[in-house]
């Protein structure tokens, strides 16, 4: 008989984690018992399987602690405590603890100085929880080989570490996002991502400014929500200064994201690191060419049409130009005689694009 599952998912209320949670709950076997501990902010937005019991966890410290106690009581011996929020339980559990780890920020290696102070303090606390209580975990579940390697490095000696299983999954997209549902192209490129620092929006806009210097003005849609208002305002001000065709669509529902894919010519994805990179999966299913960072996490889940160094606005701009069919050749070296002519003002000026 399958073990009873207690799914603990506080603080999962936006982004890729929320999309995956929706898909997972939508596929739950209707006859199987399920106990859910969910973020109160998703109440009314998330379809709960029929017959499942739900404890709504409010986003406050004391409420989270109360949720931990309630989950500990619910997770009996022989059951599975599935920590979907990426952290082990603070309290010891009689159940088998499985952690779905989809946040690379918990593993270190990413400078916290790039985050706002409030986020920095939260991540410091969560990293401490992850490290102090990892001995409670029987198994980690990740979605890519790159993430598995990162978790094993973080855990230390693999022989004494919990099992780290690779088990990717993604829900289906609405019908109008599949290739035969393509609409009129409205955007040359789209970037579906929130505004956390590693998503690299600023360098992407720098690349668009470089393209403008060459007389290229591809259209770009981004999806920065209310939490990223200051970043969105900053990027749109730069766009206005240089005459760039950049528009912020705001935080979108899953249906609106799929429609955005249907109206796009390509996905651009300059992120420095992802545990999964759900938009890469979604764009592939929607038949979009992908212009993305030349990093392991990208090739774990898709075959990009063009790649670039995410740390270089020039490299991003060049990849975009290749995708647009506007690639320029490399600089041709001149002879020493031509160099002297150029230096003395009587020869052609060389340039590197």
Attribute tags:
single chain; 353 residues; alpha/beta; Rossmann fold; 3-stranded parallel sheet; 11 helices; glycosyltransferase activity; transferase; Glyco_trans_1; Glycosyltransferase; glycosyltransferase
Explain briefly what this protein structure is.
Residues 187-324 form the Glycosyl transferase family domain. The protein has 353 residues and is an alpha/beta fold.
Q: Uncertain runs with pLDDT below 50, 5 residues or more?
A: none
CATH architecture of the largest domain: 3-Layer(aba) Sandwich
What would you call the shape?
elongated
Determine the CATH superfamily of the largest domain. Answer: Glycogen Phosphorylase B
Task: Tell me the series of helices and strands, N- to C-terminal.
Answer: EHEEHEEHEHEEHEHEHEHEHEHH
Strand order of the largest sheet: 3-2-1-4-5-6-7
CATH class membership of the largest domain: Alpha Beta
Tell me how many strands there are: 13
Number of helices: 11
* Helix/strand/pairing category: alpha/beta
Instruction: Provide the helix percentage.
Output: 25-40%
């Amino acid at each position: 008989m399958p073990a009873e599952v207690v799914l603990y998912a506080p603080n999962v209320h936006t982004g890729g984690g929320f999309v995956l949670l929706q898909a997972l709950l939508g596929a739950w076997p209707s006859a199987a018992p399920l106990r859910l501990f969910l973020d109160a902010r998703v109440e009314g937005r998330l379809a709960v399987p029929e017959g499942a019991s739900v404890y709504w966890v409010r986003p406050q410290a004391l409420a989270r602690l109360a949720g931990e106690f309630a989950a500990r009581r619910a997770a009996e011996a022989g059951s599975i405590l599935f920590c979907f929020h990426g952290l082990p339980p603070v309290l010891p559990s009689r159940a088998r603890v499985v952690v779905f780890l989809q946040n690379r920020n918990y593993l270190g290696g990413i400078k916290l100085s790039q985050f706002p102070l409030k986020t920095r303090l939260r991540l410091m606390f969560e990293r401490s929880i992850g490290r102090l209580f990892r001995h409670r975990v029987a198994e980690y579940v990740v979605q890519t080989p790159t993430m598995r390697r990162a978790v094993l490095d973080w855990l230390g000696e693999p022989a004494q570490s919990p099992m780290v299983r690779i088990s990717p999954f993604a829900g289906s997209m609405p019908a109008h996002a599949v290739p035969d549902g393509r609409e009129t192209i409205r955007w040359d490129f789209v970037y579906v991502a929130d505004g956390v620092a590693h998503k690299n929006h600023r360098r992407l806009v720098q690349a668009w400014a470089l393209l403008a210097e060459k007389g290229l003005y591809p259209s770009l849609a981004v999806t920065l929500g209310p939490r990223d208002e200051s970043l969105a305002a900053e990027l749109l001000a730069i766009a206005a200064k240089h005459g760039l065709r950049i528009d912020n669509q705001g935080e979108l529902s899953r249906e609106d994201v799929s429609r955005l894919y249907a109206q796009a010519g390509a996905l651009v994805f300059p992120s420095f690191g992802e545990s999964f990179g759900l938009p890469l999966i979604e764009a592939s299913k929607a038949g979009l060419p992908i212009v993305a960072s030349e990093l392991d996490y990208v090739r774990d889940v898709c075959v990009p049409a063009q790649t670039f160094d995410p740390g270089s606005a020039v490299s991003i701009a060049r990849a975009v130009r290749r995708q647009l069919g506007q690639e320029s050749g490399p600089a041709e070296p001149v002879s020493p005689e031509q160099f002297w002519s150029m230096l003395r003002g009587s020869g052609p000026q060389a340039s590197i694009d």
